[in-house]
Design a protein that fits this description.
Layout lengths: L1 H13 L5 H12 L4 H9 L4 H38 L16 H15 L3 E2 L5 E3 H4 L19 E3 L4 E3 L4 H10 L4 E10 L11 E11 L4 H16 L5 E8 L2 E10 L16 E10 L1 H6 L8 E8 H9 L6 H4 L2 H4 L6
Parallel strand pairs: 1-5
Antiparallel strand pairs: 2-4, 3-4, 5-6, 6-10, 7-8, 8-9, 9-10
Helix pairs in contact: 1-4, 2-4, 3-4, 5-8, 5-10
Bound molecules: 3,4-dihydroxyphenylalanine.
Length: 338
C-alpha cells in the first residue's frame, strides 16, 4: 500500500493541467468514485490494526494534498481563462486614424529651420498690444489709416489697447529687451478687421524677421531673402524686389518669387505675370532705431514680414484661405506626405 501511495505522490508531482477540463479529469482519476485515492480508503479497511494507525494518517495527508492541488489549479486556471477571453491576440488592430500637421505648422517649422541656419532665433510677443508697440514705435504717423477702427480691433481706447495687426510689434519688443546685435524671427497670430473671404481673414499668421548690427546692408537683406526663397520654393527660384512703402522701413520693397507652376512664363496662378508676391521688407528706418534707443549712426538693420497662409497657399496650391480655419479632415489629410 505504501508503494501505491508513493507512486500517487510521484504522479501528482508530474501533473500539469492546462485547463479546467484537465483538472476535472485529474480529480476523477484520483478522488472520483473509483479514483486511486478513494480506492486507498477502501483497501484501508482490510489492513491490520497495527498498520492502520500509521497508514490512516498518511492516506489522509495524501488526500488533503491532492484536494489542495486541485483547488489551486482550478483557481489559477479560471483567472487565466478570464484573461484569455479579454485578449484576443489574433484580432486585428482597430483602424486608427493618425492626425497630420496643419499646413500652417508645417510651413512655420520649415521657416524656423531655414532661418535657424542663418543664425536667427525665435522671438515671441503678446497678441494683445498697445499703440506704442504696434504703431508709434514703428514710425506710423498719427493719422495713418491702419490706426483706424476699420482696420484694427481695439479692446480699449485711450490708452489704446488692441489686437496686434502685424508681428512687427515683436520687433519693437526685441529692440527693447535684447542686446545688439539682434537677429530674430517672430512668428504669431495677427488680427485685422476684415471681411472673411477666399483671400482675406480677420485672423491670420505672420512671421517677421529683424536683423540689426553694424554695417547691415540692403545686399545682406537681398541675399537672406534669396536663400529663404530657394529653401522654401526650390533651388530654381528667382526673386524680384519692387520698391514699396512701409512707415518702419526706408527704403522699402515688396518681394516676388518666380512662379514655379509655369516657370515664369505666365499662368492663371501668377495671373500671367510669371511672379508671385510673397513679402514686404526693407532697411529699418533710422527713425525706428532712434525711437527704440538704438544709435542709427552706428547701427543699421533690415526687416521683413510675411503671411504664413500666403506662403502655404503658394507652396501647397491652396485656393481658399478659409480652408485653413475649418479643420476639415479631408483638407488636412492631404498634407500627410509633407
Ligand atoms: N508689417 C507688414 C504687414 O503687416 C509686413 C512687413 C513689411 C514687415 C515690411 C516688415 C517689413 O518687417 O520690413 O503688412
Amino acid at each position: 500500500m505504501l508503494q501505491r501511495i508513493e507512486s500517487i505522490k510521484e504522479e501528482l508531482k508530474k501533473l500539469n493541467p492546462v485547463n479546467q477540463d484537465d483538472v476535472e479529469k485529474i480529480r476523477i482519476h484520483l478522488l472520483g468514485k473509483k479514483g486511486l485515492v478513494t480506492l486507498l480508503f477502501e483497501d484501508f479497511r482490510n489492513v491490520s490494526k497495527e498498520e492502520k494507525k500509521n497508514l490512516g494518517q498518511v492516506i489522509n495527508t495524501l488526500k488533503n494534498e491532492v484536494q489542495e492541488k486541485i483547488d489551486t489549479w482550478k483557481q489559477s486556471l479560471s483567472s487565466n481563462a478570464k484573461r484569455e477571453t479579454n485578449i484576443d491576440l489574433t484580432l486585428n488592430e482597430p483602424n486608427q486614424e493618425f492626425g497630420t500637421r496643419h499646413p500652417i505648422s508645417l510651413i512655420k517649422n520649415e521657416l524656423y529651420e531655414t532661418f535657424k541656419k542663418l543664425g536667427f532665433t525665435i522671438y515671441e510677443g503678446p497678441e494683445i498690444e498697445d499703440d506704442w508697440h504696434v504703431f508709434s514705435a514703428l514710425n506710423f504717423p498719427e493719422e495713418h489709416p491702419a490706426r483706424d477702427m476699420q482696420d484694427t480691433f481695439f479692446i480699449e481706447k485711450n490708452p489704446d489697447i488692441l489686437l496686434r495687426t502685424h508681428t512687427s510689434s515683436v520687433q519693437v519688443r526685441s529692440m527693447e529687451r535684447e542686446k545688439l546685435p539682434i537677429r530674430v524671427v517672430c512668428p504669431g497670430r495677427v488680427f485685422r478687421n476684415e471681411a472673411i473671404s477666399a483671400r482675406a481673414h480677420c485672423i491670420f499668421h505672420q512671421i517677421e524677421g529683424l536683423y540689426i548690427d553694424k554695417n547691415v546692408s540692403f545686399a545682406d537683406l537681398k541675399q537672406t531673402l534669396l536663400y529663404f526663397a530657394r529653401e522654401i520654393f526650390g533651388e530654381e527660384t528667382q526673386i524680384r524686389l519692387r520698391p514699396s512703402f512701409f512707415p518702419f522701413t526706408e527704403p522699402s520693397a515688396e518681394m516676388d518669387v518666380s512662379c514655379k507652376l509655369c516657370g515664369g512664363i505666365g499662368c492663371s496662378v501668377c495671373k500671367y505675370t510669371g511672379w508671385l508676391e510673397v513679402l514686404g521688407c526693407g532697411m529699418v528706418d533710422p527713425n525706428v532705431l532712434e525711437l527704440n534707443n538704438i544709435d542709427s549712426k552706428v547701427y543699421s538693420g533690415f526687416a521683413f514680414g510675411m503671411g504664413l497662409e500666403r506662403i502655404a497657399m503658394l507652396k501647397y496650391q491652396v485656393k481658399d484661405l478659409r480652408l485653413y480655419f475649418e479643420n476639415d479632415v479631408r483638407f488636412l489629410n492631404q498634407f500627410k506626405n509633407y
